[in-house]
């Protein structure tokens, strides 16, 4: 699994000792507002954390832990998955991009910087593979990140009973 560096960030595979910071991020209602709508319990966060490792193992890509390059502080995650969503139109088989940051990291360009590095790596590792993203229409900050990264909307649909916009790059 790759390790990526930017001017401010280190993107690396998750390690077991990242779990407390990951669980705290997933327990924050502000972080989870547009990612399922509710904070995760420690147990639910553990299941999602283990999924992150499994995606790398089985698909060869996944989410990176995003760290401050100087301090080593956990800032969130960014990367790709394919979770076999039941959604129309289907995005199965794509590199579905996603990012989540701890709330103190918001508004600093970190998601864009992290995803730019991840997309650069994935474009080289998976040439020609389609990139997608699924974002709730009210999540303006994530839509701005997607647009800065070159994603464009291609469908409006619903997932888990909520409206979403599907983007592609």
Element order, helices and strands? EEHHHEEEHEHEE
- The rounded distance between the terminal residues' Cα atoms is 23 Å
The rounded Rg comes to: 15 Å
Mean pLDDT: 96
Query: Helical percent range?
Result: 25-40%
Instruction: Provide the structure class.
Output: alpha+beta
> How large a portion of the residues is in β-strands, by DSSP E?
25-35%
Describe the structure.
This protein has 169 residues and is α+β, with helices and mostly antiparallel strands. It has five helices and eight strands; from the N terminus they run ββαααβββαβαββ. It has an eight-stranded mixed sheet with strand order 1-2-3-4-5-6-8-7, with helices on both faces. A hairpin with a 3-residue loop joins strand 1 and strand 2. The longest helix has 18 residues.
Comma- or semicolon-separated keywords:
169 residues, 28% strand, single chain, 8 strands, alpha+beta, eight-stranded mixed beta sheet
């Amino acid at each position: 699994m790759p390790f990526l560096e930017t001017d401010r960030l280190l993107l690396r595979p998750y390690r077991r000792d990242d779990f407390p910071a990951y669980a705290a991020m997933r327990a924050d209602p502000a972080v989870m507002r547009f990612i399922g709508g509710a904070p995760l319990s420690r147990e639910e966060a553990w299941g999602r954390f283990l999924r992150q490792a499994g995606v790398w193992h089985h698909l060869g890509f996944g989410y990176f832990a995003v760290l401050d390059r100087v301090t080593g502080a956990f800032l969130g995650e960014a990367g790709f998955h394919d979770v076999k969503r039941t959604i129309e139109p289907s995005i199965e088989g794509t590199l579905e991009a996603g990012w989540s940051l701890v709330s103190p990291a918001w508004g600093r360009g970190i998601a864009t910087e992290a995803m730019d590095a991840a997309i650069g790596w994935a474009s080289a590792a998976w040439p020609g593979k389609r990139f997608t993203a699924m974002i709730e229409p009210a999540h303006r900050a994530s839509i701005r990140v997607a647009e800065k990264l070159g994603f464009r909307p291609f469908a409006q649909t619903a997932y888990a009973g909520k409206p979403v916009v599907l983007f592609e790059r």
